[in-house]
Design brief:
7-stranded mixed sheet, alpha/beta, 5-stranded mixed sheet, 39% helix
Length: 354
């Protein structure tokens, strides 16, 4: 039996899971108040604080770290990666500590995992990191050579959903031809083809979402930035956390939006339907990329629990391929199953090189 600890640091929480093979023993989310986080200038400065909280949880749950088989963490903001597992090593930890691609709480996952496994002589992994980039080269090209498209998004959840689809249909993942849509605070649409995430439309160039603006008319955006006197940092915050449904309706909770619709708010319905339409149009883009050679469309993520929203998307994309809905993010399970495949020899972990 493999005993696997999972770590997933987020901006205001740290999720901790413990599995024995596929069996979930517990999943806990440790909340961090704004005051706690505000004490630290940089994300990496939170290392000891977050690690101590994790160790407290393990002690409270009666988990003996000496019995662990491995630790798996959400991948941080690293240079472009292949899909699957990477062994956490000195080079990865040094990069995340000293020169991450971007400041983000997920950068702490591998660093904490590595610290835990050091005295135990067991491996630490990351799995399907945020910066998995297997995009077809032709899809990187934009109208400005200085600004190519890049692969970054909800790779962990969308690839896990694709693997679940493959298993349920008695197929090898590598043989599936799917479009997988993650519906959450941010929305991303992946083309999973030939065993790779061959393209991803994320919140830079895709649908707007509960908190994110998605694709915007670039000339108008430049003028908006100049007229409003926005710094790059301020504008980035606006499009990343103050855009989308928040900008239109003042909430990032789609359950609130559906309650507004139930109460007869026509404007809320119009905006919510527009978000669904935005998702459907981008699914169509991915279908066009492979001339419609798609066997299935998968909707996953938190908003996939909404029948109203998934039905709105379905009615505009079912002509492409049948739609399957797997609600929820299941991040901790996805991390664990990835590590378990490596431990069982079903997958080989990549070696990270800076």
């Amino acid at each position: 039996m493999y005993k696997i600890l999972g770590l997933n640091p987020g901006s205001t929480s740290t999720k901790v899971s413990y599995y024995e093979d596929e069996k979930e023993v517990f999943v806990e989310s440790i909340s961090h108040s704004a005051d706690e986080i505000a004490k630290y200038d940089k994300i990496i400065d939170q290392f000891e604080f977050r690690k101590d909280r994790i160790m407290e949880i393990l002690k409270d749950k009666g988990v003996d770290v000496n019995e662990l088989s491995c630790v798996v963490a959400r991948g941080g903001l690293l240079p472009p990666l292949k899909a699957g597992a990477y062994k956490v090593n000195d080079a990865m930890v040094t990069l995340l500590k000293e020169k991450p691609v971007m400041e983000h709480a997920s950068n702490l996952g591998a660093v904490i995992a590595y610290e835990i496994v050091k005295p135990l002589n067991i491996p630490a992994f990351i799995y399907d990191g945020v910066t998995v980039d297997e995009m077809m080269d032709i899809l990187r090209v934009t109208g400005l050579k200085e600004l190519p498209r890049r692969g970054i998004g909800h790779n962990l959840n969308t690839r896990a959903a694709a693997m679940k689809y493959a298993k349920e249909h008695g197929k090898d993942y590598k043989d599936c031809k799917l479009i997988v849509v993650h519906l959450g605070g941010g929305i991303s649409i992946t083309l999973q083809y030939g065993g790779k995430i061959a393209d991803i439309i994320n919140d830079e160039d895709g649908p707007f979402a509960p908190e994110r603006s998605g694709e915007l008319p670039c000339q108008a955006l430049i003028q908006f930035m100049e007229d409003g006197g926005y710094s790059a940092k301020d504008l980035l915050k606006k499009v990343k956390s103050r855009g989308g449904i928040v900008a239109h309706l003042g909430t990032n909770d789609t359950r609130d939006v559906e309650k507004m619709i139930e109460d007869g708010d026509e404007h809320a319905k119009f905006i919510y339907d527009a978000m669904a339409m935005s998702v459907a149009r981008n699914v169509g883009k991915e279908a066009a990329t492979v001339a419609g050679d798609i066997e299935g469309i998968v909707l996953t993520g938190g908003i996939a629990y909404s029948k109203y929203f998934t039905d709105e998307v379905k009615k505009n994309v079912e002509w492409i391929a049948p739609v399957t809905v797997y609600p929820g993010e299941n991040e901790m399970q996805s991390l664990t199953l990835g590590a378990l495949r490596v431990m069982r020899g079903e997958e080989e972990a990549h070696e990270f090189e800076a």
